[in-house]
Amino acid sequence: MKTAKGVLYVFSAPSGCGKGTVLAEVRKRMPELRYSVSATTRAPREGEVDGVHYYFVSRERFDELVETGGMLEHATFCGNSYGTPKEKVLEFLNNGIDVILEIETKGAMMVKESYPEAVTIFMLPPSIEELRRRLLNRHSETEEVIDGRVHEATREIAMAENYDYVFVNDVVSEAADTLYGIMQASKSLTKINKDLIKGVLEKC
Ligand code: 5GP
């Protein structure tokens, strides 16, 4: 049975951990799941498309969205701002459609506070050395940027214990199986099914 409201999934993992790859696998199995496109002040990387990977916006536009209450959450990460535009996400949830946010830990904690029904999931790298290796293989950042991202990774991993679920991305297909399993099981979490219990009791 489907919950009346959609489920809000919050998925975090250190940069370079393979979050996008694992999530892409899971999205193939859950075509009805909506992915929230974030706004960012970061410059696009090669191959990134405005409106698909991110809304690439100016600092002024970003600040305006925050000030007018248009963001569900926002955070600064390695010198750039990132945020989740609120309107679409709430509209989907209210229409019973599940949504996933792929965001860093400060933003994730903001969502957890303002929307406690959110299901929070953290994916770990096998090790920090492996994470650095994956970032270097991506060839999209300078060594200085990579050092910053590794530093952020250790801070983020320390936040993992605040999430509902945690697992390791060692082999992509296995990590995708785990994430899919978590997402399916969490549809039956008590915290998002209170109305279901009430509904049955009311019929007694
Ligand atoms: P990247 O620059 O590698 O695309 O993203 C850097 C970090 O920002 C990643 O951990 C990514 O998940 C996170 N991020 C992307 N969009 C958002 C967002 O809307 N809000 C927050 N808080 N973090 C985001």
Structure description:
- With 204 residues, the protein is α/β, with parallel strands linked by helices.
- It has helices at 19-29, 59-67, 86-94, 105-114, 128-137, 143-159, 172-185, 194-202, and strands spanning 8-12, 34-35, 39-40, 55-56, 71-77, 80-85, 99-102, 119-124, 165-168.
- The strands form 2 sheets. Strands 2-7-1-8-9 form a 5-stranded parallel beta sheet, sandwiched between helices.
- A hairpin with a 2-residue loop joins strand 5 and strand 6.
- Helix 1 packs across helix 7 and helix 5 runs antiparallel to helix 6 (143-159).
- The mean pLDDT is 94.
- Guanosine-5'-monophosphate is lined by residues 15, 38, 42, 73, 75, 77, 82-84, 102-104, 107.
Secondary structure elements and pairings:
Blueprint: E1 8-12, H1 19-29, E2 34-35, E3 39-40, E4 55-56, H2 59-67, E5 71-77, E6 80-85, H3 86-94, E7 99-102, H4 105-114, E8 119-124, H5 128-137, H6 143-159, E9 165-168, H7 172-185, H8 194-202
Parallel strand pairs: 1-7, 1-8, 2-7, 3-4, 8-9
Antiparallel strand pairs: 3-6, 5-6
The structure holds guanosine-5'-monophosphate.
Guanosine-5'-monophosphate (5GP) binds at residues 15, 38, 42, 73, 75, 77, 82-84, 102-104, 107.
